[in-house]
């Protein structure tokens, strides 16, 4: 019996090769897209799940008004441990500013490279976070000074296959070059964490140990990421309720001196990667919203693929009607027919699954490169299971309707003549097509909105020169010292207009900020201002528009007590822009208060991505010894300039790898998530349209088949081919238009929601909808016209002939 | 007595009027009979055949088949009844295009839950009996109309039914092919004792039967 079904199914498939291929391919595309997204979503949701008793681990973060901050002051961790018996372990991680890249060196093998994600950590790090040791004892490794723990990847890069235990490596940071002993190596494969450290330095190390020990303020230097583990069985809510009193006890006095109200809150470790996006995150996190969006897209893609499959299957029902009749007369009951057709759709979905696995395997490398993950097909047993369940469900779901529809045919009627065109079935089929197109149109609209916005933000005038601005980070003490020489040599090339150095540049997250107040105002009326520390020529190099006053100049000592502010800052201080120069602003640091004189006002520029509005910004003179970024404004031949600078660099800073980037690229990195999302939305938009077109094609051929007789009669009675073609086209275009009407408000809503991420947005205009409507109608027209014309030009004698 | 129809009525409502498809039909069929049903188009021949074959229902009257009251049986029982005792032959053969001759013959046996080995034996026997062994792996489209109908008859017979219902079995065939099929029916009826009810337009074909029933406007005349 089963064999018979299989045979029939297979022969049916083979007989209509093109049709079957389209059907299977549509489903396979849906499944493949779904699989990729499932893999992605599972990967994103599996961060930090490898730690033992992870549900008891929390990060302590702080909140001032509505500003959340991921780090805390240094003494907090010890305070929590001392005051609360339910706190089992605490550990701190210090991601010291300007040490985002460390220069590692194995002098023995003369291997040298930069590495990121190197943190200072307390010795309890490995008590809280679970990592498997490759070499050495992890729990003791960070307990002594001048030690370092490496990830297996980094260890291999430094030492090859050699055991690096107790070997010395040198770590170069802007404060100096230090030698540390490798005390352990942990395995980093298969562990994903929001931290994902490459190396951990002991917090008692010579470079920083003294400074860390001296940190006893409960208000300043919120740089320490504090993690704690609660005892099993203790109540988190209870613990949380005791935090305000605890914090008040220790920090209350200090904070009220600064008139700041600050609270502590807990973030479950497993939620950090996906759900936390607050100030001073240790590394960029994922984004739950996008996961929801991707999951929704995956779901809808699969749904429209299923709908498609159903449509195409029922479209063929007329051809199968006779079979149903014969089988019924031969003694088949409804059940066995339902099983047969369900089986067929299962078989098809199984074939689609196989095809989709091939597709996924083929596109996975590209997908991996794109999302920067190393996903593999069977990485997650859960995913494999999910996909199997989904395939089975797809088979059942998409087979259900055809199965019941077909098996309900009355043998007498189907064997006698044509099956009657079932009204409800027709409405359902049309509804399904409307649904498919509504999804596609929504995706098209959202894509266009995204595309226009991305275009807008990339071409908006930011108030400074973004392109051809080379940035070289000074990551070590020597490079900072060699700055003047570097600048002088660099400028010898005519392609390089100006060069300077600064603590930051636009698009780069500023770490420095402070509160100032204007003349005649009090401490309470302060303006919170971010500021950059720069050398002279900075304004000129970045081509800021200086509205009033002057740039810092070489050799002018008073510049140390001067500041250049932006328009917004001037407004916030209550100074007129043309009268601001020469006025003073004051800041207090502890007991001391100091004043800076405004020497210039620059036109507002976007110092942050266009997600943010322009805030008060100040530019002050750089203290020579600070780590910073060398910036060169290039005008002319980029390659030549680059070659020149590299040559200069290698002469002045031998042994330090030449590393550079461009301000434009760095600035655009702020839109990485949006770019990624827009690409994904684009790709899936095309897939959705493709599948929807297959569906429309199916319906067109189905309807052509059904209206064969009608078309024949009309032709015999004198209708022109063009009239018949138009008549049939109209029917479909009405469906597409309904879909557009349904989709437009939805797309508008999603588009607007997405645009809320930006402070500078395009407006969604009606022309956008007009363009989309035309495009969709055109696509639909191309899809169905072949079928429609074929049916209109068919010989009426043939279609009217009865058996 | 194989089957008995008592005062069978079948109608449809059209525009508030009752249009009778079958009107007060009484018919007794003994085992071993060969009956031809004749009448003009729309006289109810096929409807009668479908009612006898239990593919169609009726609105009034009694129908006894092998001492079972068909009119009181549930759908499922009725299906089981015709599955076991009745074989159908159609004007346009209604073979499944996707199956070979052999597989077409096997199909009814699948629904009657015969074992694989049994099925094989029965199909082989039937191919042999109808002299179509050489065609067993061909698809219907590769056969002539007469050969297709031959397969159709073979399929109707394969599960050893007591009754064969044939709705214009020669309607799509030329005269020579018709002759062969009618000869086959006659032989089956005489040698194997299969009861046959056929619908036909042809006097010549009707003459093969032992009894002729004439219908006009749903009524026996």
From TrEMBL, chain A:
Q: Which residues cross the membrane?
A: 21-42, 290-312, 347-371, 383-406, 427-451, 680-700, 732-751, 763-784
Where does the protein end up? Cell membrane
> Start and end of every ABC3 transporter permease C-terminal domain?
296-409, 682-796
- GO molecular function of the protein, one example? transmembrane transporter activity
Q: Enumerate the spans annotated as MacB-like periplasmic core domain.
A: 20-243, 504-609
Q: What is its main location?
A: membrane
Membrane topology per the entry is: Multi-pass membrane protein
Q: Cellular component terms, GO, for this chain's entry?
A: plasma membrane
Pfam families in the cross-refs: FtsX, MacB_PCD
Q: Which UniProt keywords apply?
A: Cell membrane, Membrane, Transmembrane, Transmembrane helix
Which PROSITE patterns would you find in this protein's record? Answer: PROKAR_LIPOPROTEIN
* Stored PANTHER family: ABC-TYPE MACROLIDE FAMILY EXPORT SYSTEM PERMEASE COMPONENT 2, MEMBRANE COMPONENT OF TRANSPORTER-RELATED
What's the protein here called?
Answer: Putative ABC transporter, permease protein
From TrEMBL, chain B:
One matching Pfam family: ABC_tran
Which parts form a coiled-coil structure per UniProt?
none
- SUPFAM superfamilies in UniProt: P-loop containing nucleoside triphosphate hydrolases
GO molecular function annotations of the record: ATP binding; ATP hydrolysis activity; transmembrane transporter activity
SMART domains for this protein: AAA (SM00382)
Domain named ABC transporter: which ranges?
Answer: 3-221
Task: Name the GO cellular-component terms.
Answer: membrane protein complex
Give the keywords, sorted. Answer: ATP-binding, Nucleotide-binding, Translocase, Transport
Q: What family does the database annotate?
A: Belongs to the ABC transporter superfamily. Macrolide exporter (TC 3.A.1.122) family.
- What's the protein called, per UniProt? ABC transporter, ATP-binding protein
Could you tell me which species this protein originates from?
Croceitalea dokdonensis DOKDO 023
